[in-house]
Amino acid sequence: MSAIDPTLTAGMVRAAPAGRSVARRILGRAARSTEFRIGFAVFLLLVLAAALYPAISGIDPTAMNVRARLLPPIFLGEKWSWAHPLGTDQIGRDMLVRSLVGLRYSLLIGVASVAVTLAIGCTLGTLAGYFGGRSDTVIMRITDAQLAIPMIILAIAVLGVSRPTIPAIVLVLGLSNWPVYARIMRSVVMAERGQEYVRAAQVSGATHARILLTLLVPLLIPPILFTSVLDVARMMIFESILGFLGLGVQPPTPTFGNIIADGRKYLLNAWWIATMPGIFLCLTLTSIILMGSAFERARNSIHGGA
Fold this sequence. Notes:
Radius of gyration: 24 Å
Protein name: Peptide/nickel transport system permease protein
Transmembrane segments: 38-56, 105-131, 205-226, 232-249, 270-291
Pfam families: BPD_transp_1
Structural class: mainly alpha
Distance between the termini: 43 Å
Helix content: over 70%
Family: Belongs to the binding-protein-dependent transport system permease family.
Number of helices: 10
Order of helices and strands: HHHHHHHHHH
InterPro entries: BP-dependent_transpt_permease, MetI-like, MetI-like_sf
Number of strands: 0
């Protein structure tokens, strides 16, 4: 194989730095917006609370205490306890600790499932767009078949016949959304593969792997990663829905879905059991959506020449 001619492949030198430059510009512009700062502050506070408070309090989120059952939150002004500032559930478990531990699992599953989605979708979409031909046809037919299967049907099929575990839930959620990224990556790669810098690299003897990893991926991944921030919120919603339906992480492990499902029986006399995890879920989703929206607006303004 002939050596790569630097005069023909100058784009290979510029591609990765260009991708990183775009990412830095998007992040910098987004970070200057008020909505990003509010979203990041709320998100950081929630993550720190979820990481630290359960350990600092020393309260086991699964430990029962019948004597402290159905204690209301401290702001109700009724019979409450400083040891349980957001009250307790029907068997005396602390709602603050359970909500924060539920936040841990929800974030873990949301981020991991988006990572699976990115790995599958970006890989298949890039291969389909770059090689075209029969590879493109096969991958796109698989994509069409996957899009025809609703997420809830896939979840019932996979999780309904086996014990729902975190890896199984991550796999189900990850498989539900990868076709979207595959189509995006395919269309962009098909447009980029005809550019001069890619042709120059091919003529000078660069391997397909080098062209993909050095030229195309650095330019394509930054906007995909920023867009995927919003998908984390969506995966958290799906995880909560699965937990509410009994297809998520199983009790006694607390998650937003199964806590809310348990609390729906007590909405009239102990509404905080279902409401507190719902509030934490809404705050987390709102903070992620604020950050994701700031990224999206910054990306659009940069690409629009603003």
